[in-house]
Amino acid sequence: MTGTTFFVLLIVATAVCVIGTMVLWSLVRGPRPVRWLLRFVMIGLCQLTAISVVATWINNDYGLYASWDDLLGRNNAAVAMPGPPADRAKFNHTETGLLDTYFRGRHSALSGQVVVWTPPQYNEARYRHTRFPVVLLLHGVPGGPASWLEHGNMPGDFERLMNARVSHPFILAMPTVDPGGIDTDCTDARNRKVATWMAVDVPELISKKFRTLSGAKGWGVMGFSTGGFCAARLPLAYPKVFAAGAALDPDPLTGDQGVIGDPEVRKRTSPTYMVRHTTAPVGLFLATSAQDRLSPPHYIEQFAQAAAGTPVRTQTLVLPTGGHNYNTWTRLYPAAFSFLSRETSAPTG
């Protein structure tokens, strides 16, 4: 459903319908009502295929649905299939050179997928004793870790930034943001400890399986949309785990009533409230576009004002153009990774 082949087939089908309608329009025979009925059918097919092309293009761009089951609501299980604990989880090599696993967190009791990319230096002999910083890449909702690969041009875009010395090398880890399909805006809800999954279980897994730097200066987090909200929230909630975050077109930083119904809980777990009351010296990069109606700049401006006078170091960026999509998010990569590099430690050892 998200593949190029399906998209091309739809374009071809649309072209065939349009050309066929033009050719057959005057050739239709039979009684007048039958002729008009057939012509209406031809017009309907042209419209249906054209709408399908546009809908598929939007889906591919936003990563809204990954499969037909996802679209039709057949992937609605609230609890993910339990995975093995971190010490027994095995990373499998994918065809694209990435590492992929599925595990169950010891602290959150949640299970989910984690995709990892290691920089080329990680496997070079001269770096065999070197430990690397980590950046968690958090996808939007709906979406999944594959969103970064299929639509976010990762890890290719980051590798180019690294080679251009815009950023120092990071291990990139892409965990599931909503284990079991339940979105909590990276908070610990009742029976759904997503914050614990993200800030305790996932770092514990990565630290056990890879040569990572210890301490908060060895860890950053970056996300878009819902993942951007999480990237602003997690360093404030867990400053001993994450030294920095980069929020790209984050969901409203005052909280989403569609996710957290209780207004008091929503307020106290929102990044804007948390930054006003924090004593954590973390770094946060927040960016959006002046044209993004889902992540308007005033939320970032409000956050920056709340952060003033606190130990939090903020950097904001508002692009003049761009919507709530991957084209905008990828344009923010250079500034975001440059910021994360300044706020975290370089590989050492």
TrEMBL record:
Gene3D superfamilies per record: alpha/beta hydrolase
Keywords assigned: Membrane, Transmembrane, Transmembrane helix
Pfam families per UniProt: Esterase (PF00756)
InterPro entries per UniProt: AB_hydrolase_fold (IPR029058), Esterase-like (IPR000801), Mycobacterial_A85_antigen (IPR050583)
Signal sequence, start to end: none
Transmembrane segments: 6-28, 40-58
Protein name: Esterase
Species in which this protein is naturally found: Streptomyces roseochromogenus subsp. oscitans DS 12.976
